[in-house]
TrEMBL record:
A Pfam match: Cpn10
Alphabetical list of Gene3D superfamilies matching this protein: GroES chaperonin (2.30.33.40)
Keywords on record: Chaperone
Similarity comment: Belongs to the GroES chaperonin family.
Keyword Chaperone attributed: yes
Record's protein name: Co-chaperone GroES
Taxonomy, superkingdom: Bacteria
Molecular function terms from GO: ATP binding; protein folding chaperone
Amino acid sequence: MLHDRVMIKVEKESGERRSTGGIVIPATVEQSNRLSWGEVCGVGHHVRAVKVGDRVLFHPEDQFVVEIQGEDYLVMRERDLHAIASERPEHGTGLYL
């Protein structure tokens, strides 16, 4: 990866899901503003906050999709990430879930 680009493998969502009230939401329902989780598989030289293996939250629309060895990956700028799920408490700033 070059510059501030991050390559992410998107986690596959299971079919149907349940709301907090117990209502079953079928897999065919599309939510346009839903954020997705993924795993960082590659980072550019100017990426500061994430590293390979981190789990990140992002908006999957309007990103570049690339297929490598039959797997789909997203390529985006580091600034397009919303959160990092990390066990690195020493950083103290940013959102670490």
